[in-house]
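anyone seen this seq b4? input:
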Amino acid sequence: MNKKLAKVKNLLKIHNQEHLLNFYDNLTNNQKESLLNQILNIDFENILGLYKRLSVFKEVNYKDIQPLPHVEKNKLSTFEIKKYTNIGEEILKNNQFAVVTMAGGQGSRLGYLGPKGTYELNFDLFKKSLFEIICDNLKETNKKYGITLPWFIMTSEENDLATKKYFNEHSFFNYPENYIFFFKQEQMPLVNTSGKLILIEPWIIKCASSGNGNVFSSLEKSGMIQKMKDLNIKWVSFGGIDNILLKTADPLFLGLTIDGNHQIASKTFFKEQPLEKTAVYCKKYNKIAILDYADITMEISEQKDSNGCYLYREANLLSHIMSIDAICKSATLDLPYHRAFRKNTFLNEEGTKQVPDSPNTYKFEKFIFDAFSYFDTMLLFRVNPQEEFAPIKTTSNIYDAMDKYKKFFNIPKHDL
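predicted toks r here
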């Protein structure tokens, strides 16, 4: 351990992070070993390089932005709906479709200690966790088509064990256990405003998942892409854990994607308020992209085409379909990092946990939509958010989301 400690001390000195060993002498041997291994596995050049580039602001040149065409579900004819649905159903019936649920987060914004997917909603007549709601959706599809959809669940270092324990305790919600596959996404250390990594325990460096864009490399490194190939999977849906109205296997959406000869597709909803804090799809420099809400002006948001349709109002639903070839390609891409400024508890110089009153750390994450810029075309499919978008994000929107769910499934309404 002496050689390893010397190596770590030299590494920390080079990157001005010596504070990470402030409590080293008081640790047990196992804790010392754990801390040293964490430090040796950190890419300091990468994380500190991202921190140093925080001040670099790339101004959007609006002359280089173009709209991205979309298809509206409510404008499809009965004939078109039947045609595209039949195409998608053939993929499902042939067991060539799989589902990925991105569930690496914790329920902290809900005031809940545990994996977000294990958070239970109280519908009065019954309780269901976010995982169980998705599982019910999958089982309904399985029953309809006489299949069993492979379900790939992305966890994180923070919630992997707790998630697996929860599934075991609930008998996998009576879903075939051999069709559920867990894999962990990667994580990165947090950096405070002084460019220092922080400790959450004297022997643990505080890290966070590196975003949903990490799903592709995580699938590859865990062997799950090969698993999909072994199962003869041709198409995969990607969705977050929090949308309780998410359609995990939508044959109409799939059929439209295939008929249009696209490798990737996303569902969208119409952005009602022009300056609402919602990102929208567009093209930047002739490549598929997302226009962040901070870059959206009233002028951009109000632009219409010759038919009076808004050009920049297609909001991201976090519901995507990709071919297996597109997933393989995306797993090789070096996607850019985005930063988020968050409040995070940390260990101060005295070794006491401190809860900040305001954001104090930077989190760096990749987003799944950045992979789309490497493809020439994609389908945007606008759906009704009252039927397909009810995210459980914070305590303030739980009841609204549950009301949407009750209305869509005709669940008797009681006082919550």
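The CA atoms of residues 229 and 324 lie 8 Å apart. The longest strand covers residues 314-323. kinda curious what u guys think
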